[in-house]
Amino acid sequence: MNRLNRRHFLTRASHGAAALGAAGWVVPSWAAEDGVTAKSITIGNSTALSGPLGNAGQDHIKAIQAAFAQINKAGGVNGRELKIVSKDDGYQAPRTVENVKKMIDDGSALAFMSLIGTPNNGAILPMTEKAGIPVLGPITGAASLRKPEYKNTFHIRPSYTDEVTRMVQQLVQMGLQDIAVVYLDNPFGKEVLANTQRVLAEQKLKAVASIALAVDGKNHAEAAQQIVDSKAGAVFLGTTGTGTTDLILSLREKAAGLPVIGLSVTFTDTKRLGKHLQGLAMASVFPSAQVMKFAVVRNFHASMEAAGLTTTGLGLESWINAQVIAEALRRAGRDVTREKLRNALAGLRNFEVGEVAINFTNAAPYVGTTAVKLGVFGPDGILRS
What we know:
This protein is α/β, with parallel strands linked by helices. 40% of the residues lie in helices and 16% in strands. The strands form 3 sheets. The chain has a 7-stranded mixed sheet with strand order 7-6-8-9-10-14-15, sandwiched between helices. A 6-stranded parallel sheet has the order 2-1-3-4-5-13, with helices on both faces. The chain has a two-stranded antiparallel ribbon with strand order 11-12. It is globular and about 65 Å long.
């Protein structure tokens, strides 16, 4: 007896009232799908709760918990409460595979959301696609993961290609042409490097240096010296995690005024950067979580406060993701299945979470937003675009 049939057998056996009749066993509709019970819907997640992106991963999970708590307090979704189950992968793709495979095998999640990392999502998306499991809001903009055959994957954020194009063009428009590129030494960083080289070539430029930064940042001092030695007029960072912080601190000791610009995921450790955060620039794909003029930001912070959770603001993206998946679940109806959820997500048009409007494309690859702005950190540590 396979896993799925065994689970359904046990479910039926526990409901003795559903006796065998002319139509055979009667199965409660709520038991028909993994991660769904009469009272709850569970969404799965594997993310970095430790390691170089541990602080970011923790913030994302807290944001989902706060969003779900707020939704549940208001009655849940179609009479069910929402739950998030997260497993730590330390930003290591093999651990992500292990975590996701376990949740698929034990039937504990209806869908997945907010998995962090290009290599991590790259490792599990073929698996979730084969199983027909919706994945919402991967925390990566890798173009390599936006494929027509990924019909169950729904990206909220713009692509890194969009971000790189906008940021490099901005540097060139500012007259900064001697650009050094630092990239994380993994699939994410290498893809960003290739995009950056392409955009520079379109501007008839070439990077004065292309420098690999170890995922754990152990070579940050050497990388900073390479930047200085290249006599770069500006630095573009295709990096993320605590290693980026180490690099910036080393670079500020050697070249304090050198312009530095990164991606939307580059600066994840703003507290440790302290005064060195001022003047750093980055791609902005969501409203800044510190700018309270935005309704989505005010609602995010109110939700976090109501849940008694603190935030650095990094989790705003996953808080938005939580609103999107809740809306899709509402539209999928009481008898929710993965296929109904997938169809509900694919049909989302002009769904607004404050100032963020989600419009999924008509066919895969599904992408909900495309706007990219340039943001600069001020002396108060707030990113303004």
